Every structure is written in C-alpha cells, then in structure tokens.
Amino acid sequence: MTVVEAALYGGVFQDWPLDDRLVAELHRRLCGDLVPEWAGKWRDIEVRVGRLEPPPPFQLPMLMRDYGLDLQARWPEAEAGGMERLLEFLAFAEGRFLTVHPFRDFNGRTIRLLLTELLRRLDLPRVTLAPESEEERQRYFAALEAADGHDWQPLMALWNARLQEAE
C-alpha cells in the first residue's frame, strides 16, 4: 500500500479521470503481486459483508461506471470550497464504494487509496482513514450502514472530524 500511496503523492494519477478505470488500477497496483488472477477486476462471486449483501457480480460493471460518473458530477461542487458539499462528496465516495464492494478482497484498502487521491487533488491534509479504537470502529461501521441506505450524514460527521483532527 505504501508504494501505491507514494505514487499517488507523486502525482502519477493526476491526469486520470475519477472513474472506474482509476479504481481498478489502484486495486491492481495494490494487490497484483498477491492475487494476479483477479487484481483490478470486478468480483465474479457473491459476497456478504456483515449484514450487507452487495450487488451481484453481473451489476458491477454498470454500478462502477455509474460510481465514476457520480464522482465526476459531484467534483466541481466539492472542489469549489463549500464545506457541506465537500463533506458530502467525501462521504459519498467512501460510502457508495463500500456498499457496492466491487472486488473480492482489498476493498477497504482500495477505497483508502482512492480517498487519498481525492484529498490530494482537493489540496486537503492527510487524514487518518482507518478507525483506530473499538469505539471508532463501531461508529464507522454504523456510518457505513447508514450510507448503505444513502444516508450520508453519519459519514459526513466522520469526515468533518477527520479533517478537523488533521488541522
């Protein structure tokens, strides 16, 4: 993960559009040495993540294409500087990705890489993305469950706290 993060901060992906190809490439670079047969490819199996049943594999190409288009459509308002839209953008980027759960494994690490790239492009500070305590983990999982139902408010609150702690 450190190698891919260094590439992100080196601007390797600066000119890549925010789309499904960027997400797949981040995943491929993250775990291609470990699982070359499916790294960077949408999952072809059904999965369950806690109480979440992500969409079936046949829907993933369309859902991930739509995810990229949604990111691109939301980007101008996030970049314009309004805090509410910025928080909503970051919460959407994280929550929607994890609801779709596009890969067999390494989804959490992949979204952290994508979020790192988004923060870099938005010229925001590095933040702690993985919860560090059990209390933080429970709050995070509750926020993700809310996001599964398109309620971004709990994740927005987490993003607000992340950004405040980074200042």
Structural write-up:
This protein is mainly α and 167 residues long. It has a domain of 116 residues: Fic-like fold (Orthogonal Bundle). It is 61% helix and 0% strand. It contains 7 helices and no strands. It is globular. The chain starts with a helix and ends with a helix. The model has no long low-confidence stretch (mean pLDDT 95).
Query: DSSP strand (E) fraction?
Result: under 5%
Number of strands: 0
Q: Percent range for helical residues?
A: 55-70%
Rounded radius of gyration (Å): 15 Å
Structural class: mainly alpha
Q: Let me know the average pLDDT.
A: 95
Largest sheet: none
Instruction: Indicate the CATH class of the domain at 2-45 and 53-124.
Output: Mainly Alpha
CATH topology of the domain at 2-45 and 53-124: Fic-like fold
Descriptive key words:
mainly alpha, 167 residues, Fic-like fold, globular, single chain
SSE inventory with pairings:
Blueprint: H1 2-9, H2 20-31, H3 60-79, H4 83-100, H5 107-121, H6 134-148, H7 153-166
Helix pairs in contact: 1-5, 2-5, 3-4, 4-5, 4-6, 4-7, 6-7
Entry summary:
With about 170 residues, this protein is mostly helical. It is about 60% helix and about 0% strand.
